[in-house]
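From the shared-data thread, chain only:
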Amino acid sequence: MTARPSTYWQPGEVVLWRYKRPNSSTESVRPMRVVRDDATGLVAWLAPGTPVLRPVLRNGADLRSVPLGERFDVERHGRATRLDTWHGQGVLKVAPAGVPWSVWLFWHDDWSLDCWYVNLEHEHTRRGDVLVTQDHVLDLVVQPDHSVTRKDEDELAAAVRSGRFSASEAAAIEADAAAVEDVVRRWGSPFCDGWELWAPDPAWPLPELPPASVADAAYR
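Structure, as tokens:
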């Protein structure tokens, strides 16, 4: 179990949500504004138009531009990061304490809820103003009617074939997905917490990427 932080970030602070690769290099960085942070976990807002670092292939192409069977072949295609902008309505991310996943809320243009998106990932750790985790490929989509479907099962299988995950690691990830499905069936937290009714403060300025993160971008 991840230890609780000795101090919590304050509402309105900007923190960096960082995904690392298995070799601990940076995969992506997203500056986000803290909505709430306490013993139950972190809630943070990724505003549209926010500058971000996102993962790309070594040649700068999108990760999904290669066939699925080659997508996790790092030796062949390599990895880099690209300086980009977050598009769409923005995302509210809820990271409950001590679990290997986070829940992302997406809205339609009229601010009606689109879905809850569950990103399976490492339990979160903190380093200064940075939340650090690692993506586990498999995800879940929870609709407003509480129905849930798994997403990217084929990618997880490809990741196992390529050696990105072992069979036992993939089984643990699938068990995490089942645990989330149980939370959805019970409609437990954070799904029952009313975050779909939340809206960002329009006075919040866009956060910025720190210069050190921008310097990490291999493609701009």
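The chain has four helices and twelve strands.
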